[in-house]
User: Fold this.
Amino acid sequence: MTVRELAGRVSGVVLGPGDEGYAAEVAGFNQVVEHRPVMVVGVRDAGEVRRAVAFAAETGTPTAVQATGHGPSRVAEGVGLLINTRRMTKVLVDPVARVARVEAGARWEQVVEAAAVYGLAPLNGSSPLVGVVGYTLGGGLALLSRAYGFAADHVTSVEVVTPDGRPRTATAQQNTDLFWALRGGKGNFGVVTAIEFGLVAVPCFYGGGLFFPGESAAEVLHAWRLWTRSVPQEMASSLALLRMPDLEAVPQFLRGRLVVHVRVAHLGPGDEGERLVGPLREITPVLVDTLAEMPYRRFAEIHNDPTFPIPYEERSTMLRELGRGAADDLLRLAGPGSGCTDIMVELRHMGGALSRPPSVPSAVDHRDAAFCLSTLGLPGPRPAHVVDAMAHRGTGRSYLNFLAGPGTAQLAERGYSPAAYARLGEIKARYDPDNLFRFNHNIPPRAKSF
Ligand SMILES: Cc1cc2nc3c(=O)[nH]c(=O)nc-3n(C[C@H](O)[C@H](O)[C@H](O)COP(=O)(O)OP(=O)(O)OC[C@H]3O[C@@H](n4cnc5c(N)ncnc54)[C@H](O)[C@@H]3O)c2cc1C
Assistant:
């Protein structure tokens, strides 16, 4: 299959290496790995996706999908077709039904803005720039997840072009196996062109963060983990050990030193939030305190995720508990004097609605996790890999959305229970027997076990 043949089928931009615009078309947020396919197509609607996938199916071309490039795993290099969905950005909010219909290339900032007009919010994560579809297909650990569960639990309909080039709609009543697999199985089952999901009411919101000096890491971590045991499910928080580079773009108080950042997202009024965070403020003097009642549309100020492309490798493991021993292990690996080089070692408090099964079962696991531990750093040798060294404290599972960069594609199996992984493999065999969609957290097709 050639660039010219594909260009004859779709009206969107079709480019090959060497063509002007190719580098911009394949570029993504994570600069550590980048797709370098034989051809890239920039699609503008579901019809173009269908024609591109049909062409790939007819010619047996392995196919990758990218919206923003926040979560690449295995990339297409010197082979295959990349379908870039970033131009498909329509977002529709129905305030009466409290649902949003969102196209493949939309980012969270758009949905939050559109929903906030009606006092509603989606189950978005920490960054406004992450793509809605890629995030949701991986589960979606949201700022409001302790109150409402994973984002995938709220999906009501998925429009997808399966690897045979056919458009299908998956819901709780239609293509039910596909509906189960798409919610958690990430990009293995074709190109999702749009999803529909429920929104939640956010009448008032309290959030922000406390920054503590790195020397207080032990005090802060122990106090925070004990505090999480007492808070209601409306109170979500995370703790990050940050080692930001000594660069001008980084705020002075964070530059080139270890800082502990406790982030808070509370679904409730300001006075309640103030009362609940009281014990955190008393741990030890803070460097900076940004906690306040705020409109939910300002959610990006809680984590302050980077807004410009950077290179990183991300790994994760779910922890069953965070007792004194586990916290001390983590401090030895990533605390002051540990020699840890990761830019961020993060613990997110799970539990609450995250531990309850969804009304319509999905492939998303982790209902038994108390904390999600993840690391973000440059690839390369480390004194010890924090995630690997802490894995024995874990549930044995990784969170797929926090696996990015070289070497993470083959870790997909760790995202699921053995039974869920086997079922995903069987559904993959039905929809993608030749594993054309392999540039992802790949689930190889497997024969049905009887
Ligand atoms: C700064 C930052 C903050 C983050 N915060 C959170 C968070 O709070 N909670 C959380 O759960 N995750 C979070 N993530 C992880 C994020 O959800 C994943 O990286 C997700 O895969 C990003 O999706 P994307 O479309 O933006 O990225 P892309 O790299 O474009 O896509 C990633 C993968 O998703 C799949 N995919 C994307 N679009 C489609 C489609 N239309 N059809 C089929 N497959 C598709 C493909 O397999 C693709 O390889 C964060 C990541 C970063 C870098």
Remarks:
- The radius of gyration is 21 Å.
- The mean pLDDT is 96.
